[in-house]
């Protein structure tokens, strides 16, 4: 089998039919908002569901698309028994390897204040997108040569069609000053989490005034730079806690925290649990599905 990327590290595809797992009850979701370190596209085939993403509530129905970044905790507050959906999750490395246009990528990684995570397809779009997700699911299951390229191609087709129909879903379509620079900085941060990342250091590296950088980064991404760096580090830490046997100290060091105590305090302030307790809940969280 010839491919560049691996499942499930870089891509995960699921079609989930019928009743939602009992772990997806509203109370369970309230206590344990779902998290994963990949970007996600959710497409509803049948039924309805109410989602909360970063404090915003959305009512999903057949034909609804939902885009969730790797930094956004999310939960489901209600659902119908017929709720069936596709979930496609991809890593930043995967999506930026195959898709180079910052405008298209911005639906995953930029969150200005007015961003809407949901798009409701027209009847014609629903039929077309349903076929695309069927093809993605088939490629993922068959794993023939270059299956990852085929999956990326279908995602690209979908994003282009959506961009033409609803450019407002893509924050970078507004062509704000500094969009390209912010996009490059986001990629730089993602690949240098273990290094000393500061506003001054990044501003110097990208030849930009640090006060201007601070302003445009917040405006475009929805996060201030320091907050964004911490979120990226915690996102990666959660992934490592769930999917590796590394110690908390090793994870802390690999992600650029000053010391383990600082990492534990930061993690607990964001997740309401220290890292080791979070790890113990991994099995429960990994059983959650929607």
Brief descriptors of the model:
290 residues; alpha+beta; Jelly Rolls; Arc Repressor Mutant, subunit A; 2 domains; 5-stranded antiparallel β-sheet; 3-stranded antiparallel β-sheet; 16% strand
Question: What report would you give on this structure?
Answer:
The strands form 2 sheets. A 5-stranded antiparallel sheet has the order 1-7-2-5-8. It folds into 2 domains: 11-170, Jelly Rolls (Sandwich), CATH 2.60.120; 176-286, Orthogonal Bundle (Arc Repressor Mutant, subunit A), CATH 1.10.10.60. The chain has 13 helices and 8 strands. It is α+β, with helices and mostly antiparallel strands. A hairpin with a 2-residue loop joins β3 (49-53) and β4 (56-60). Helix content is 49%, strand content 16%.
Write the layout of secondary structure elements.
Layout: E1 11-16, H1 26-31, E2 39-46, E3 49-53, E4 56-60, E5 64-68, E6 74-79, E7 84-90, H2 92-98, H3 102-109, E8 118-120, H4 123-142, H5 147-165, H6 179-191, H7 199-205, H8 210-221, H9 225-243, H10 248-254, H11 260-271, H12 275-280, H13 282-287
Antiparallel strand pairs: 1-7, 2-5, 2-7, 3-4, 3-6, 5-8
Helix pairs in contact: 4-5
Assign the structural class, choosing from mainly alpha, mainly beta, alpha/beta, alpha+beta, or little secondary structure: alpha+beta
Helix count equals 13
Q: Give the spatial strand order of the biggest sheet.
A: 1-7-2-5-8
What fold name stands as the CATH topology of the largest domain?
Jelly Rolls
Q: CATH H-level name of the largest domain... which superfamily? A: Regulatory protein AraC
Number of domains as seen in the coordinates:
2
Distance between the termini: 30 Å
Average pLDDT works out at: 88
Q: Rg, please?
A: 19 Å
CATH architecture label name of the largest domain: Sandwich
- Total beta-strand segments: 8
Shape: globular
* Largest beta-sheet characterization: 5 strands, antiparallel
Unreliable runs: none
């Amino acid at each position: 089998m010839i491919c560049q990327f691996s499942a499930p590290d870089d891509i995960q595809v699921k079609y989930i039919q019928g009743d939602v797992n009992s772990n997806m009850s509203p109370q369970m979701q309230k206590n344990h908002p779902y998290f994963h370190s990949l970007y996600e596209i959710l497409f509803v085939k049948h039924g309805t569901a109410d989602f909360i993403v970063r404090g915003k509530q959305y009512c999903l129905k057949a034909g609804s698309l939902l885009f969730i970044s790797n930094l956004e905790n999310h939960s489901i507050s209600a659902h119908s028994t017929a709720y069936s959906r596709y979930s496609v999750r991809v890593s930043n490395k995967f999506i930026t390897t195959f898709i180079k246009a910052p405008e298209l990528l911005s639906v995953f990684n930029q969150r200005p204040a007015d961003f809407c995570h949901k798009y409701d397809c027209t009847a014609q779009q629903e039929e077309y997108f349903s076929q695309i997700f069927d093809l993605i699911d088939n490629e993922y299951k068959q794993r023939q040569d270059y299956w990852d390229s085929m999956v990326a191609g279908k995602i690209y087709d979908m994003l282009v069609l959506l961009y033409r129909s609803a450019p407002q879903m893509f924050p970078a379509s507004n062509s704000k000053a500094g969009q390209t620079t912010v996009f490059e900085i986001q990629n730089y941060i993602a690949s240098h989490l273990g290094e000393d990342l500061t506003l001054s250091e990044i501003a110097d590296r990208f030849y930009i005034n640090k006060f201007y950088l601070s302003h445009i980064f917040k405006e475009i991404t929805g996060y201030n730079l320091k907050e964004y760096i911490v979120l990226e580090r915690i996102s990666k830490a959660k992934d490592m806690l769930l999917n590796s046997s590394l110690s908390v100290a090793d994870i802390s060091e690999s992600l650029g925290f000053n010391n383990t105590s600082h990492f534990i305090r930061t993690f607990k302030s964001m997740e309401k649990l220290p890292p080791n307790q979070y790890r113990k809940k991994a099995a429960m969280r990994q059983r959650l599905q929607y």
